[in-house]
Amino acid sequence: MPAELSPIDKAKFAAARRAVDFVEDGMKVGLGTGSTAAWMVRCLGEMVREEGLSIVGVPTSTRTAELARQMGIKVVTLDEAKWLDLTIDGADEFDPELNLIKGGGGALLQEKIVATASDQMIVITDAAKEVAQLGAFPLPVEVVPFGWQTTRGLIEEMLSSMDVMGRQTALRLNGTQPFLTDEGNYIVDCHLKRIGNPRQLSLVLNQIPGVVENGLFIDICDKVIIGGADGTVELRDINDGSVSHDRIDFAEESNIFSDLD
Ligand SMILES: O=C[C@H](O)[C@H](O)[C@H](O)COP(=O)(O)O
Predict the structure, then answer these.
(1) Is the pLDDT of residue 261 over 70?
(2) Number of Cβ atoms within 10 Å of the Cβ of 3
(3) What are phi and psi of 89, to 5 degrees?
(4) CA Rg, the chain, in Å?
(5) Which of 32, 87, 165, 190 would you call most buried, defined as having the most Cβ atoms within 10 angstroms of its Cβ?
(6) DSSP readout, 85-154?
């Protein structure tokens, strides 16, 4: 483990490394997007190259697809895979019911489609993402560019009647230009502070013409793995209520970091 890895990176790696223990030969695996998911892709690549693990991966973004191919993972489309055994992905927030906010990196649409098309979703994360109630992280809402300002106005009008603490929205920018998702859509970030009823909000948001999808993942996540900088990991299963603990020995994982620049 390179000594220069930050504590947060060590925590993310620990969660990612524990998650790949659930990947078996022959599986079709959804590959998430973000810095934590990137560790997972690296770990799977190591297993493919060094242990002959035979899987196919369905990426949730172009950047994950590029990394997966670089790591030697066979990449297929969701249409080719049709259905997945397991999706492993990160999250921006998770609550006690393992409902999530995702989309901090703009990949929420493909991530939600892929996670929903999976028998199981495992979220890999660190303790800072755990909240009692969703909303401190701005909720990403993907909208089509056509009439986006009208769509934004309809979102804000809808929010005025919802159980949320904040109602400010902002177009996500990339420099001075609108941020574009892999599908060429825009993201409107909703600064809600606290979301009283995430399930209701997700349903209502997606009724608004122009809204493509939102970053609330309701009843999709099955397990969460919370990594620690010391290598400890906590695994919670929402389906049976179990909680288990493990420890990753970083010294045994040095191969993963050999190609890090
Ligand atoms: O759009 C990005 C995804 O939803 C990510 O899974 C999420 O933002 C978490 O990313 P990270 O693991 O980098 O915190």
Answers:
(1) no
(2) 4
(3) -155, 165
(4) 18
(5) 32
(6) SEEEE--SEE-TT--EE--TTS-HHHHHHHHHTBS-EEEEEEGGGB-SSTTSS-EEEEE-STTHHHHHHH
* pLDDT tens digits for range 114-170: 999 999 999 999 999 999 999 999 999 999 999 999 999 999 999 999 999 999 999
The pTM (predicted TM-score) of the whole model is 0.96
Ligand 1: residues within 6 Å at CB?
32-37, 89-92, 102-108, 111
pLDDT tens digits, 57-116: 999 999 999 999 999 999 999 999 999 999 999 999 999 999 999 999 999 999 999 999
Could you give the strand order of the β-sheet that contains 139-143, starting from the edge strand earlier in sequence? 168-171, 186-191, 139-143, 211-214
Asked whether 225 and 234 are in contact (CB, 8 A), the reply is yes
Distance 30 CA to ligand 1 centre (A): 14
Distance CA 200, CA 216 (A): 10
ipTM score above 0.95: yes
Q: Which atom of ligand 1 is nearest to the CA of 35?
A: 13
Catalytic residues, by residue number, are 111
SS3 category, 155: helix
